[in-house]
Write a structure and sequence with these properties.
The chain is mostly helical. The chain has a domain of about 210 residues. The protein contains 10 helices and 4 strands. A two-stranded antiparallel sheet has the order 1-4. The N and C termini lie far apart (about 55 Å).
Amino acid sequence: MEIFIQNLFNALQWGSFYALIALGYTLVYGVLLLINFAHGDIFMVGAYIAFFVSSLLLGDLLGVFNLPGWAALALTVPLTMLLTAGVGVTLERIAYRPLRRKGAHRLYVVITALMCGLILENGNLALLGASRRKLPDMVDKVVYTFGSVSVTNLKVWVIITAFLVFFLLQFIVTRTRIGMAMRAVSWDKFALPLMGIPLDSIIVFTFVLGSGFAGLAGLLFAMSYPILDPYMGAMVGWKAFIAAVVGGIGDIRGAFIGGFLLAFIEIMVAAFLPSTFRDLFAFTILLMILWQRPTGLFGVAKTTKI
């Protein structure tokens, strides 16, 4: 039982990373019906931004600042989210918006998203090199032990942060005027300008939210597993996308639960079977779910009026 509880905490931590990234996927898809395949690499960019921001604030870079760890962390979180959101908005402005205004087929937009992800990966590799980097320590690691179950303070923070982000996003989408506008875009983006709602502003806000959460996930991931490399977002991003699809892409609740479901399957398979079976069992089970629920656990099939 204690082994199960220990792995449950591990699954909650990994699920938090998947869920934060999956929320970005489902936000963009819910508004634009666009699968932003560059989103996993935005997560990677967020981790690197957190590295440079924290190194600068701690005095390890340039020696301008020399803040204590808690102050550096308090500033690194909003700065990382803001700068990563800027990366996402830049991609939308340069790559996606021109195609959208020209009425390009959705396939070309997906190919563009894949290309943007490759540019972020290889651009990072060209600028910073292939050597891995380590995020500086900003907080002391505290281990809480309950019998044979051990939980670190950072693991608790990651889990709590993921749930707080989910509730905040749920509030924004369902209880605010801009959230109502986001839902209106997903329903009929052609009628929206006729109602005086700026379409581009709503889309930019969507990318700000999704990319900001990806940056937060990158920071939390870098704090938990501090070794960074240019391709760290590829597999994590694909798995978060799969989690969003299984949960029901376009549904915030589905993306959040899908991230934890995928992490739970992965961790439990690795705990009781050889780790080489982890991805095989995880994706097989998820495929079986999609066989029974093609729209995902919480997705609803959309009807098109002709």
